[in-house]
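Re: the request from the purification team.
They wanted to know what the chain is likely to look like in 3D before they choose a buffer screen. I agreed to run a prediction and write the result into the notebook, where they can find it.
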Amino acid sequence: MARSNSLSVTNKPAVVFLFGPTAVGKTECLADLASLNIEIISADSMQVYRGMNIGTAKPDAGFLKRIPHHLIDIRNPDEQFHAGDFVTEAERLIPGILDKGALPVISGGTAFYFLNFLYGLPEAPPTNRETAETLRREILSGGRERLYEELRRCDPVTAARIPAGDTYRLTRALEVYRSSGRPLSSFSTEPSPRTDYDIKIIELTRPRDELYARINRRVDMMFEQGLADEWRSLCGCGYTSEMPGMKAIGYSEFFLSDDEDEVRDLIQRHSRRYAKRQMTFFRKIPNRHLVSPRDTETMRRIIFS
């Protein structure tokens, strides 16, 4: 379909959100949409890391050459990449993509990235690395529950929003409180979506049993492709379980067991649970169109509506 994608029918620059849970089929959809002259801004918090290819289901070199991708292989596994980094990079990349007459497609599964791009970054203070490190040590020595109780006392509103097992959000909320003396819930975010772009929002969806079967098959394929060797190679480079990249599903499990079958089962189980959390979080994104990954005709209609 030959046409300029720099402006939508609203005369605002068009940007597409294409998201869905792990293994739903995002890469296949992008391949089907390649004729639209698209460039991808990856919204995957783990594909930013170099050397982590198999476990993050990173597109292969041929696919990356066929469809330009951004925000892949831009960090080492010992470096942080936060939602603020993503928004800053996406804001920088989109004008250049539009100037080329291409359509920016933000695609991935990290729902927090989409929400922060859509509504703006919270006004809460930036990460305090010293406080974050203190909290990390406290979790290792005393477990999550004690810190969760602390959050209930100092910020019950945020505590009610965070599942007890969500370590990242728990430590971030406590880090904000300890650093600023204010509960995270006292910091506001932009109440309405941004209006500078015409954002087309597509959520890929499959029946849950079908999705879970695809997750299990994907993990089996990762092991066939050499996931265990990839993990050993990363460890050989000095990357440890405490580093941001190595906490990812598909890598962290190798630190829990020497039995490869058990590791495989853990990755499959953790991936299914993650997919469930993703689908829950995606419901917070407004005006989304639920589309089967096979229905690229509907996706094209949404993009050009």
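For the purification team: Strands lie at 14-19, 38-43, 69-70, 103-108, 198-204, 289-291.
Please add any questions underneath this entry.
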